[in-house]
Specification:
This protein is an alpha/beta fold. The protein has helices at residues 18-26, 49-56, 62-71, 87-96, 111-120, 172-179, 192-195, 213-230, and strands at 32-35, 38-41, 77-81, 100-105, 126-130, 132-134, 138-145, 161-171, 183-186, 206-210, 234-235, 244-248. The N and C termini lie far apart (53 Å). It holds the Pfam family Methyltransf_21.
Length: 251
Amino acid sequence: MKSAFPDHSEQFPGSSDPDLRARLAKAGRPSHITSFGVTFPTDLPPMIPRIRRVLAANEYEEKETKAALRVVRRGDKVVELGAGMGYMSSIVAVNCAPSEVHAFEANPGLIPCIRRVHSENGIGNATVHHALLGDAAGEATFYVRKIFVASSLLPEPADDVTHTATVPVLPARETIAKIDPDILICDIEGAELDVLPMLDLSRLRGAIVELHPQYIGLKGVQVVFDAMNAAGLVYNPKRSISKVVTFSRPE
């Protein structure tokens, strides 16, 4: 049966897992899953069973999603650090009517996935940046793990690292200042400790940050809060859930 959804996998080599697609077709599984109005191809390489299941139940990145849908406004410019497979950038673009979405992702294997998700949903206001942010322009080693969401700049734990990739590094402060976003969404597996203090956060209306205390510790959490507070952004308990914390500018 022909899928009712567009399939742009041929336009984005590497965005499809043919073996997974064959297994899903044999099992009668759908070609796409819809979550919050966004369709996601089920043959994306990151689409392990758990991710397909929580996407279908509208439970994928649930805390971050709830915060973003409440914080992002029509016409906003949004920067996302740690774009994954294109989930959050697409959810925001489709549901919140921002003027621009800038999705930064280090994992080279996820770049074609993000672009395919954007393409198949007709998202034209999102820009994908394959890069990390740092003190200055250069390159860095990125550790790709079996569980793609755990991939990061951290070499440990090493037991599930599948390979490393050399990723371009852009100057953090200059790059984000040029975009001049209203909202920052950040989920970068512990790198928030180093990246957020580099940025000029004073022009943001709000920020949604997933903290990783297992990597940065409570002292690292304090560094993040201090950076936000120094920029005039305060912890917003109504928009925060557990490790996903929202900072807002008092109005």
